[in-house]
Amino acid sequence: MSQDTAIQPVILSGGAGTRLWPLSRALYPKQLLPLTGERTMIQETALRLAGVAGVAAPLVVCNHEHRFLIAEQLREAGVAPAEILLEPAGRNTAPAVAVAALRAQAQDAGAILLVLPADHLIREPGAFRAALEAAAQAAAGGALVTFGIAPRSPETGYGYIQRGAVLAGVDGAFAVARFVEKPSRGVAETLVASGEHFWNSGIFAFRADVFLAELEQHAPEVLAAARGALATATRDLDFTRLGAEAFERAPSISIDYAVMEKTRRAAVIPVEMGWSDVGSWASLWEEADKDGAGNVLMGDVYAQDVERSLLRSDGRLLAAIGVSDLVIVDTPDATLVASRARAQDVKAAVEHLERSGRSEHVSHLRVYRPWGWYQGIDAGARFQVKRLMLKPGAKLSLQLHRKRAEHWVVVSGQARVTRGKDVFELFPNQSTYIPPETRHRLENPGAEPLYVVEVQSGSYLGEDDIERFDDDYNR
Question: 277, 267, 321: which is closest to 138 by C-alpha?
Answer without folding.
Answer: 267
